[in-house]
Amino acid sequence: MLNLNGELMSGDRAIAVIRNGLLQDCDDARLPYYLKRTQDLQGWLELRAVDRHRPNSRLLRRLYRLGDAEDAEIALRASAVTITDNFWIRREGSSETYEDVRFKENLFADVALEGKLDAFSDGRWRHPSSSPELTNVGSFEKCWRFENGAWWMYKRGDESEQFAELFIAAVTEQLGYAGTAYYLTSTGVKSKDFTENGRYNFDPAVGFIGDRYDDYVYCYEKLQAFGQRFADDYVKLLYVDAICRNVDRHSGNFGILRDPDTGEAVRLAPNYDNNIALFARLSGTASISAKKDMLITDFLDLIEQKDIAFELPQLSRRTLSELAESVPVKDASGMAVDFVYSRQNMIAEELEKIRAQNLPKREIRETEKQLAGLNQKMQDTTSVREKLELGQQMQAEQKRLEGLKRQNAPERGKLKHSSREK
After folding, report:
1. Which of 171, 169, 203, 172 is nearest to 189 (CA)?
2. How far apart are CA 340 and CA 318, in angstroms?
3. DSSP state of 120
4. Are 349 and 342 in contact (CB under 8 A)?
5. Three-state SS string across 31-47, please?
6. SS (H, E, C) 175-207
7. What is the per-residue pLDDT across 58-106, written as a single tens digit (0 to 9) for each?
8. How distant, in Å, are the alpha carbons of 37, 102, 130 from that of 96?
9. Is pTM beyond 0.90 here?
């Protein structure tokens, strides 16, 4: 069990008391979603620690003499402060404020991003200040740098990864969806902190879905609980993933931006982290042929199962070509434009089939809703005349409903489609 006493803070507001590693007196409205769901403080701290599988993180642990430290201890070395939210741990007896513990510099950016060893000999190792790299999560080598009053995330990557990140950011913007702007660097790409230096708390999806990121229907329904617009934006995120073949969408790289003062969910975080999409990690011979692969199938299944009226914003090949040409790094495969174009067209064709299949069901639901409304009016009114008129309308709607159900019923004796049919 975690041996820790103190307070869980949001900025300078205490939102829970910590006694022997357990949470008490929680402010549920402001609590991180993960803690609200699990009450597991140690698990939450472990999620905030730098990924120990990153080679350069080993150098960071060496600088801080944390070689054998557990993940929770590494996060606590920085008071569990991160760049992307205002949550932190104030230990018992401390009078520290958020201004005292929040990051103002990063002396080890070069170590984290490039594995440079200068810090071991130039004096930085003697009194290492708290670094945002201790809580900079993710599997790729990266670092935070403070430039012109804002934090920027630098991430390493080869040319195919650079192109994927930059091109998909351009596609997302062209579609009118919320996305993160990326810029080319000498070692990869960089992007500005989308929480705007603490204006929002980024609460990753792991807090409310756990590890069920591959269950699109489950995620969609969970996001609906925050409001339909959150679920709608999630569908847009999945659409970009589907046409650009981003297989790396997980519960740590999408989530919700929250108001730090009230804890209110403001909106879905912008689309980011697309560096291994397209052909970045393709083994064997690349192909532009549009196949109904896992990403497309899962996206279409979500649309069909939840009967989502998704408006498909198709891009022309010319527009995609212009976007690719605007990217300051070459598409090494030479096929990204045709690849995305063919995948969006396949989805468009499949969506038309789904809409044709779902139309009768939608008409049935609308008619049932209409009948329920008429029935409620019948119960509410005391006018005999109105009751007669409503009764006639209900008879007409009932007749229509029965007709729709007959049309939508499968033919008697007809075998249902099975994936095992030959």
Report:
1. 169
2. 12
3. G
4. no
5. CCHHHHHHCCHHHHHHH
6. HCCCECCEEECCCEEEEECCCCCCCCEEEECHH
7. 999 999 999 889 999 999 999 999 999 999 999 999 999 999 999 999 9
8. 28, 10, 14
9. no
